[in-house]
């Protein structure tokens, strides 16, 4: 099994903690995870991968972070057809609209979203949420 990237953007550390738990799940399933901030990878580096995970919190009016993550995701949309993608992130307000929009974008671009939807939590992930992130990583690795 090749390396599975878990790419995230995090301001407060909540989404980073989720990313690390997804990476742990990938490793526990026998895969090799590389958890990396979106600022340290390019969308082009993922174009030949069959699966990967993306994490971003809700920002502003329930949108992806605009300076790094949005341009990254926009570029990825041209190469995700047929790929398996796990989506996750945290939010502080709203009802998860940013994640529904994100998963619809990935599906419209031809990606298969693990579990059919993204994994979200309000504020900091608790032990149960981190366990769910690990399970998400295991499903991604076992795809």
* CATH architecture descriptor: 3-Layer(aba) Sandwich
Strand composition percent: 15-25%
Q: What general outline do the C-alpha atoms trace?
A: globular
Number of helical regions? 4
Order of helices and strands: EHEEHEHEEH
Backbone structural class: alpha/beta
Can you give the mean pLDDT?
94
By CATH reckoning, the class would read Alpha Beta
CATH topology: Rossmann fold
**What is the C-alpha radius of gyration, as a whole number of Å?**
13 Å
Q: Which residue ranges are poorly predicted, with pLDDT under 50 across at least 5 consecutive positions?
A: none
Textual characterization of the structure:
- With 143 residues, the protein is an alpha/beta fold.
- It has a single domain (3-142), classed as Rossmann fold, CATH 3.40.50.
- It is built from four helices and six strands, in the order βαββαβαββα.
- The chain has helices spanning 14-28, 69-76, 97-108, 127-142, and strands spanning 3-8, 32-37, 51-55, 84-91, 112-113, 119-122.
- Strands 1, 2, 3, 4, 5 and 6 form a six-stranded parallel β-sheet that branches.
- α3 (97-108) links the parallel β4 and β5.
- α1 packs across α4.
- It starts with a strand and ends with a helix.
